[in-house]
Amino acid sequence: MPLQKQPRTPGFTRPTSPDDVVISQTEAIKAMTHPLRLRLLGLFDPGTELTATQCAERTGESVASCSFHLRQLEKYGHVERAEPRGKERPWRAVMRGYSVRPDHTDPESWPAAQAFGSMFVAEQFAALQRWLADAGRDDPAWVYATTQTHQEYWVTRDELDDLSRRLEELTAPFRGRAEDPGRRPPGVRRAHLFGAVWSEIPDPEDEDT
């Protein structure tokens, strides 16, 4: 089932880039809810083509496992076959970026999105933990350029929505560097921004607060 770009529904979808795809179909969300599939998708920068063997080398998984999960991602339109290179049959990503958001008209998409969200947070947290474990051997100038922060504040629903939009727009100046190395200034590294914005669900006795 190929993915389609979906029009914005105010209050429910928040497109992050003209090239991003909003994934809200229950089965398409479930197809992504697997740690290896998420890691496989992360290997495919724009213009990158990789065989299952190359994916196995980069993930530490077996070729058979990578082949299986690539086929599952293909089934729901996340990756596709690239042009063969001799006997090699490489894969490439269909979408440049994606946003998983439940369809408020489909009750089944909510638990699917919750499961994906839990797995996604766990994977990103594990990546941050791996960086923290190795940070001591890095250049201190790069280490001090990083941050981990937590803030609490009182906001309206519209203010929270605006904050989420602005957080997603922070990396806009760096778009295009993945597919065009010529746009990368000297001394660049691959960097990660992992952020979450949410509001606490009030207790019933606090609803009038």
Please tell me about this protein's structure:
The chain is mainly α and 209 residues long. The N terminus is likely disordered. Helix 1 runs parallel beside helix 5 and helix 3 packs across helix 4. The strands form two sheets. The protein has a two-stranded parallel ribbon. Strands 2-3 form a two-stranded antiparallel sheet. It is globular and about 65 Å long. Helix content is 38%, strand content 7%. The chain is built from seven helices and four strands, in the order E-H-H-H-H-E-E-E-H-H-H. It has one domain: Winged helix-like DNA-binding domain superfamily/Winged helix DNA-binding domain (Arc Repressor Mutant, subunit A), CATH 1.10.10.
Mean pLDDT: 86
Q: What's the gyration radius in Å?
A: 19 Å
Please, how many helices?
7
- Supply the number of structural domains: 1
Topology:
Elements: E1 20-23, H1 26-32, H2 35-43, H3 52-59, H4 63-75, E2 79-81, E3 91-93, E4 97-100, H5 109-134, H6 140-143, H7 157-169
Parallel strand pairs: 1-4
Antiparallel strand pairs: 2-3
Helix pairs in contact: 1-5, 3-4
